[in-house]
Amino acid sequence: MEPPSERAPRLGSVAALDRVLADCRACPRLVEWREEVARVKRAAFADEEYWGRPVAGFGPADARMLVVGLAPAAHGGNRTGRMFTGDRSGDVLVRALYDIGLASQPTSERRDDGLRLLGVRFTAPVHCAPPANKPTPGERDTCAAWLVRELQLMKGTLGSVVVLGAFGWQALMTAIPAAGWSVPRPRPVFGHGVRVDLAPADPATPRPLAVFGSYHVSQQNTFTGRLTPAMLREVLADAATAAGLHPRTP
C-alpha cells in the first residue's frame, strides 16, 4: 500500500480523504494496538462492535473553524469510529461547542446519534489510537500528509484553528507551511489562550489563519481543574469569532 505521503496529495476532496484515510495501515505499532483493543474490548462495551481503524475527521468540509486534537481514544473514537465520540474528552468538547451554539446537541455518544457540528470540524495529527495515548514522533510524521492535505482542501473557507495540547500544536506548526500559510520564526510556543495570526504564503491561500492554543480536553486536565468549561468556551468562542462565526454567550 502507498504511504500517506504519496496517497494524500492526490485526493481531491475532504470526503475522499476521509474515505481513503480509514484504510491506512502505515504504522505497524498503531495498527496492532488499535486492532487488539477492538478484539479485547473494555468490559463496559463487550457487546459492541469496535471500529478498530483510523478515525477520519468529523464535521463539514467547508468549516470555518478546525479543532485539532491528539489522536483517537482507544475506547472512544477507536470504538465508535468518530472523532471525539464516546469518551469524556468528547463530552467536554461537544458540550462547550453546544453551549456557544456550534453543535446541534450537547453529547457525542455514537456515529448515528445525530450530532452536527455547525461551521466546525474535528481532526487530529494522528488518526489511530496509540498505546497509552502517546503516539511517537515518527507516527506523527507518517500521519502528517493527511493533516496537510486536509488543511489544503479546507483553506477556501478556513479562518481559525483551535489546537488542543502541545503535541497537536507542534504537529500543526510543522504542517502549516506545506498547506499554504507562513509560520514566524522563532516558531510560536504553545500555551493556553495563545493566539497566532498566520499570513498566506502564496496566492492560492485566500485568507490569513488565526491559530489558538488550548489545554487538551483530557480527564487529566478537566478533572483537576487545569481546564475548566469556562476556559474552553472562551478559547472556542474567540476562535469562532476570528473565523467569522457568531458564537453565543452561554
UniProtKB/TrEMBL annotation:
Keywords: 4Fe-4S, DNA damage, DNA repair, Hydrolase, Iron, Iron-sulfur, Metal-binding. GO terms for molecular function: 4 iron, 4 sulfur cluster binding; DNA-deoxyinosine glycosylase activity; metal ion binding; uracil DNA N-glycosylase activity. Residues 56-236 form the Uracil-DNA glycosylase-like domain. The keyword DNA damage applies. CDD domains: UDG-F5_TTUDGB_like. SMART domains: UDG (SM00986), UreE_C (SM00987). Gene3D superfamilies: Uracil-DNA glycosylase-like domain. It holds the Pfam family UDG. One of its GO terms (biological process) is base-excision repair. It comes from the Bacteria. The keyword Iron-sulfur applies. PANTHER family: TYPE-5 URACIL-DNA GLYCOSYLASE. Belongs to the uracil-DNA glycosylase (UDG) superfamily. Type 5 (UDGb) family. This is Type-5 uracil-DNA glycosylase.
